[in-house]
Every structure is written in structure tokens, then in C-alpha cells.
Amino acid sequence: MSEALRDPILDWYAEHNRDLPWRRPEATPWGILVSEIMLQQTPVARVLPLWEDWMARWPTPAALAKEPPGEAVRHWGRLGYPRRALNLHACAKAITDDFGGEVPSTYDELRALPGIGDYTAAAVASFAYGGSHAVLDTNVRRVLARAVRGEEFPAKATTTAERKLAETLIPAVGAARWAVAVMELGALICTARAPRCDACPIAGLCAWNVTGRPAYEGPERTGQTYAGTDRQVRGRLLAVLRAAHGPVPKSALDVVWDDHVQRERALDALLTDGLAELLPDGAFQLPT
Questions:
Q1: Residues 36, 71, 151, 184: which is the catalytic one?
Q2: How many CB atoms lie within 10 A of CB 26?
């Protein structure tokens, strides 16, 4: 079954893969690491211009490590989940200090970097260094759930069974290409909301498709909301701090949201997460 799935997916990928800079032969391990962190919960279209700007500004970990963490937050812009910017800065410092400025190549070393989880460590070890790992992002997990288990969606968290299944499908040669091919199929064809089964290279082998695409019966899946949430408030507060290029009086932050309790809660969260600093005079700024 593994070869029956692999070959058509790899053939499809050879013809339909997107030309993304972090996939090109000249992409550096640092560029791949930056892309993987930026792409977490964020579409390629939003990541691409920021990734290009980031790599032009900080082409190496050492270049970013020289800057204060607030600059990483500033140039993260409106990409969302700005703690990722702090994680990237912390990674740059660790890589510079502990690995001579070179992104480590092994899963265990990558996993030990600040803010790097299982998926990112496996992805960088695979895509940057040709390692053989189960690279299980949301897209890959959805493809395998449908194609092999006949389920519309995978469990919320990665299970041991999922990992074992993914490991059995890894080819002896070209593991990294296989990983990115399944990921691309999930991103472009086997999407969550509107799967294009008529264009899928394994439609005739997909257990979910051939059994009539049975409806998901697991726990209720709820989409993320943004409007009116603390996330939105934090985003507005951070936008003021990013634009200021220096300390910001509290009064400049108070005007961004009418709900005093929610605004103060969001501001406290920024301080707790290290995304903002409170100065002795009561002003606020990005982390230094």
C-alpha cells in the first residue's frame, strides 16, 4: 500500500509543486527554519513577502542575534502569533552562541532550540539536511487520515498510531521529497473545507473517498475567531509599539480599545509573554 500511495503523489508533486524560495536548492538551513516558523498557522501568501524581507534583512542567525528582540517583533508585522518572532530571535542567539552560527542538523539538537517543537525539528532536519523523519503538519495528518484510515479529519493532537503510520510510509530514498509532496497535496488538493477529490492523484486509493467520504464523527471542530478577542486587542497594542520606534506613553495605548478591562488584560499578556516592556516612567516599548 505504501508504494501505491507514494508513487502517484510524488508524480503529482513533480508536476504541480509551487516554486517557493525556501524549497529551492539554494535555500539555506536558516531560511528553511525561518519559513517553517512563519508558516505555522499562516498561509503561504501572507508569509512569502515577509520571509523575503526577513531574509534580506537577516540572512544569517548571527545577523538577527545582533539585534534586540524587539526588532524581530517589529518586523514580524501583522503576520500574527508574534511570540514566534521572539522564538526566532532566541533561536538565532542559541545557534550563534552554541553552534557557531550554523543551524544544527539533527532532530535532537533542533528540538532543543527555543520554541522548536516536534514538527519544526523534523521539518528542518528533513528539508535542510535530507533527514528521514515523519513530518506531521496539519496537511500531512489530514491526507493520511483520509487516504489510509478513511476519516475526514485526524484527531486534534498527533497520536502514536499516526506517527507509526507516517513512519511506515517514509521511503528509503528521498524521504524529504516525500514529506513535502504529501504536505503540498494537503495544502492544494486535500484541503480541510473543500477537498478537490476529482483532481487528487490517489482518489481511487483513498479510503475516505472510495467509501463515499463519510462525515466526521469526532469532537466538534470550531474555527478560530479573531474579532473582539484578546488577540485582536494585543494586535492593536503591538501595532502602536511597532510604529513608535521608541517608548510609548500609556495614553497612546489606552485609545486603541474602549473596553478598559480587556485592554489591560491584553497589555498584561504582552508583558508576560515578553512582547512589551514597562519602563520606570510608566511608558511601554518593544523588548530590548
A1: 36
A2: 6
User: How much is the average pLDDT of 97-124?
Assistant: 97
Cβ(123)–Cβ(135) below 8 Å: yes
Name the residue type at position 182. V
Band (pLDDT 50/70/90 cuts) for residue 183 is very high
- Cα–Cα distance measured from residue 257 to residue 263, given in angstroms and rounded to the nearest whole number: 6
pLDDT at 203 over 70: yes
- Is 36 labeled as catalytic in the residue annotation? yes
| CB of 133 closer than 8 Å to CB of 125 | yes
Residue with cell 486535500: 190
- Count H helices, E strands: the chain? 15, 2
pLDDT for 225 equals 81
Helical ranges in the chain per DSSP H: 2-16, 29-38, 44-57, 61-65, 69-76, 83-98, 107-111, 118-127, 138-147, 160-169, 175-188, 207-210, 230-244, 250-254, 260-272
Q: Is 3 helix (H, G, I), strand (E, B) or coil?
A: helix
Burial of 218 (0-12, 13-18, 19+ CB in 10 A): exposed
So what's the pLDDT on residue 2? Answer: 67
CA 164/CA 88 separation, integer angstroms: 30
List 278's β-bridge partners, or say none: 284
| 8 A C-beta contact, residue 116 and residue 40 | no
Domains and CATH numbers, the chain: 28-127 (1.10.340.30), 230-285 (1.10.10)
The backbone torsions φ and ψ at residue 278, rounded to the nearest 5 degrees and listed phi first, read -100, 125
CB-CB contact of 155 with 163 (8 Å): no
Asked if pLDDT for residue 189 goes beyond 70, the answer is yes
Q: Is 174 left (phi over 0), alpha (psi -120 to 50) or beta?
A: left
Q: How far apart are CA 64 and CA 96, in angstroms?
A: 9
